[in-house]
Q: What sequence folds into this?
């Protein structure tokens, strides 16, 4: 009962509160999983699950109809199940993706059933200029919607704690081994999804540079991150200098911009500004 209440409360405050005061990102696995691990007395498992699931869901951004999974509920249940199963992180991670998909569908249904019927009420309050009424209705519906959503992990853990253990004991070892392998592959899938979105041929050389440094030179990840920050600063400074140079050239050019009053061309002005 205690674990069920704790996980439900965390889901209510993080997943529900993520957009209450702006998009705070507190509903991400990297936040939820360690928090649940801390409250349930197994911080190490929470950190492991949070880091792994953040990698899986890093490329998942639910915008309008382009939605795939709800990582907050998945992280909460996966962490709780992993702790209940004695640290079986790989199995819990493999269960996280279907849990996230189911969570998103329930979240969408709650939007339709709880918030949808009050759309006309919002319009009437806005037409009457009742700002206080709009705020009360908004926060009231928020509380009701996410209270209902938090009941999912509550009953899942309340009913499923012992049931989950019994089901796992009935599952053959070969299937559990397969789930463990799938859980190990999911972070790579998440990184591939993120790379597909961010990939640019102009900067792809940095990806291969990072891979080379880690794989062959065995440089620690923190050192590689510091090197990446330095490279980013150097590139940004170069872009800023280029923008300033273009502005100076634009100021010196007159009329059509081909030749200035001294008879110098744009190319000559650029060279002069560069060497100066």
A:
């Amino acid at each position: 009962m205690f674990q069920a209440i704790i996980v439900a409360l965390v889901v209510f405050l993080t997943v529900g509160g993520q957009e209450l005061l702006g998009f705070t990102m507190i509903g991400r696995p990297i936040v939820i999983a360690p928090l649940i691990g801390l409250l349930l007395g197994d911080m190490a498992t929470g950190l492991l699950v949070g880091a792994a699931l953040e990698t899986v869901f890093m490329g998942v951004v639910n915008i309008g109809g382009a939605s795939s999974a709800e990582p907050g509920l998945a992280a909460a249940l996966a962490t709780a199940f992993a702790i209940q199963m004695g640290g079986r992180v790989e199995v819990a991670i493999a269960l996280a993706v279907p849990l996230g998909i189911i969570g998103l569908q329930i979240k969408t249904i709650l939007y339709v059933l709880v918030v949808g019927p009050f759309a006309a009420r919002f319009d009437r309050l806005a037409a009457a200029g009742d700002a206080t009424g709009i705020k009360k209705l908004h926060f009231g519906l928020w509380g009701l919607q996410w209270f209902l959503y938090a009941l999912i992990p509550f009953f899942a853990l309340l009913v499923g704690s012992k049931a989950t253990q019994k089901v796992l004991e009935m599952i053959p070892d070969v299937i559990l081994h397969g789930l463990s392998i799938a859980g190990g592959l999911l972070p790579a899938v998440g990184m591939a999804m993120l790379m597909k979105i961010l990939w640019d041929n102009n900067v792809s050389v940095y990806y291969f540079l990072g891979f080379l440094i880690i794989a062959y030179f065995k440089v620690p990840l923190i050192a590689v991150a510091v090197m990446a920050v330095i490279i980013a600063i150097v590139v940004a400074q170069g872009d800023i200098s280029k923008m300033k140079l273009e502005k100076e050239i634009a100021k010196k050019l007159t009329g059509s911009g081909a030749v200035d009053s001294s008879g110098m061309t744009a190319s000559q002005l650029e060279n002069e500004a560069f060497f100066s």
